Amino acid sequence: MTRVSPAVCVWLLFGLQAVAAVKAHCFLVPPKKLMENVDYTKQEHVARIHSDFDDGNGNIVYSLEGKGANQNPFNVFVVNPRSGHIRVTKILDREFMDSYMLTIVTRYKNGSLAESNFDLRVQVVDDNDNSPVFQDIQTGVVNEGSPVGTTVMRVIATDDDERGNRNSQIAYHIIDQTPAHDMFEMSKSGYILVKNSGLDREFQKTDQYVLTVRGQDLNGEPGGNTGTGTVTIDILDVNDNCPVLTTDFHTMCTTDVSVIVNAEDKDSYPNRPPFDFVIIPEGTQGKWQVNPLNDTAASLNAQESMWPGFYEVKFVVRDKQGEACPDPQKVTVEVCTCVDGVVCGKRATSKKSEFGPLGIGLLVLGLLLLLRKYDVMLILMKWAKTFYTFAVLTTITRQVEFSRSPV
């Protein structure tokens, strides 16, 4: 309890507020807390001041001083100068002002103080009238290949309700993520974690995820206010891909001296070109030299006359960080004699395609000829058989006729 001037009492009309007068001494219980968003304006009074020097005929004048009375914001609380009834003229907003410290003044009509001034503190009780707010787009980063459970970032939302109160205690969760690989999860306290293994920038063909997150006050319990925000997570490249040749077969005319080899790397800068091409002498057939052409290509030059045939060349191809595949890169070069500028493989393909219809035509013609010859032979054989039969019958007939004739 707060000791008040012996002759002054304040009656507060809510809850546990009370005033006790014992042997002309008045005591003030700390004032009642008033709820924000509650309309007290229609009530006759929320508190009452009374001095024992007040004879009931208006000899004492009551007044209030301080913010919310005679200071900005003006006249939120007013007092009846004769009755001492304190009223509220506006609906209170805790976020605008969470408490009021008023000074109670009692004077005689001539302006002299009847009692010493004392303070009346009115605290405004928070109502859950604000939703969580996410500021702009929050961004985090994580390395590709990070293990499950890796903490990426913490998302923070604000709630203008009273700090330390359930009304401002926010629980978080993810409601959508794009691409929909379900790679991340969110703790109730706002931490975003890697949920699944296989966070691969190259395989999933994305280097950024966009998450929509929701915050709900009352610590996520039903009835809480909600707000949503956007989070972007950038996937940082790890040098987990080595440079590889784009093709393992080349053709070269005996009159040429070089072929161009190209390599590629799926990683991003700085884990990619420029590439360094180096020939491995062991296992390489023929004498070759490699010279860079640009960041991703090199010229493979023959250092001696090359006979027609197949030559295997082994490479080590390193990226900008000096990383290479565990096994050497191999390329086969077919050297051949080129006619009219037609390269080996193209010439073979060209000849094959040219001979195809002609060969088929010749085969068909041959078959037709064979069939015709076969038919002719059958006809001749039939004719011969018929002629032989006719000759035999003629001979027999003549012999019979000769035997019947007279001598």
TrEMBL record:
| Entry's Gene Ontology BP terms | epiboly involved in gastrulation with mouth forming second; homophilic cell adhesion via plasma membrane adhesion molecules
Q: Please report the stretch or stretches of sequence annotated as the Cadherin domain.
A: 51-134, 134-245
Indicate whether Nucleus appears among the record's keywords.
no
Which CDD domains does the UniProt record give? Cadherin_repeat
Q: Which UniProt keywords apply?
A: Calcium, Cell adhesion, Cell junction, Cell membrane, Glycoprotein, Membrane, Metal-binding, Repeat, Signal, Transmembrane, Transmembrane helix
User: Which GO cellular component term is one of those annotated?
Assistant: desmosome
Its localization reads: Cell junction, Desmosome; Cell membrane
May I ask which residue range the UniProt record assigns to the signal sequence? 1-21
**Gene3D superfamilies noted in UniProt:** Cadherins
- The domain of life is Eukaryota
Checking InterPro entries in the record gives: Cadherin-domain_protein (IPR050971), Cadherin-like_dom (IPR002126), Cadherin-like_sf (IPR015919), Cadherin_CS (IPR020894)
GO terms for molecular function, please? Answer: calcium ion binding
For this protein, the parts annotated as crossing the membrane are 355-371
The name under which this protein is listed is Cadherin domain-containing protein
